[in-house]
Amino acid sequence: MEPRVTTAPVIDLRRYGHTDLPGIRQTLLDVHAIAYFERRHEEFVQRFPWFVEQWGGREGFACVVAYADGEPIGSTYGAPGESGHEWWREYLSEEPADPSTFSVSELMLKPQWRGQSLGERLHGELLADRPEALAVLTVDTKRPRLQAMYEGWGYRKIGERQPFPDSPLYAVMLLDRKCAA
């Protein structure tokens, strides 16, 4: 019997912007459908296409899709916050020297690709060339392991919020990119 040779798939991270949304929209929806399959019946999860349009419609929208041997396996996206309207400020007692913020809206991986540091790679690629001093994201408070993962990446919890009546209660997490660099 010959030894079985397995090769690791080639992981390719591709960057996209606002004008690319029509071409990647279905990819984002397809990855989301698999990543959130267990929660597919939740009304909030079912509104994902609306969120894609809202975020993708912003001029500074940025997205990174991970492909394994050409097959999409995960993605992350977000957009710059509107100057002077940073919703997370209410959780801070002190004004940051530079409040420019990139809001990370989504980070998702198909289940079989989790736990392999791909989320961190996607996140790093999304923020790699961003000029903003801060990054903000929210994570379901019922997911403490995810919160701990983001803390390991330099984020800190600054508060909690429930942005929609049917959304989970989220931990608001802020990353000072100048300190993390």
Automatic annotation (TrEMBL):
GO molecular function: acyltransferase activity
Residues of the N-acetyltransferase domain: 11-176
EC code(s) of this entry: 2.3.1.-
Pfam family membership, one: Acetyltransf_1
Record keywords: Acyltransferase, Transferase
The keyword Transferase appears for this protein: yes
InterPro entries for the chain: Acyl_CoA_acyltransferase, GNAT_dom
Keyword Transferase: yes
Name of this protein: GNAT family N-acetyltransferase
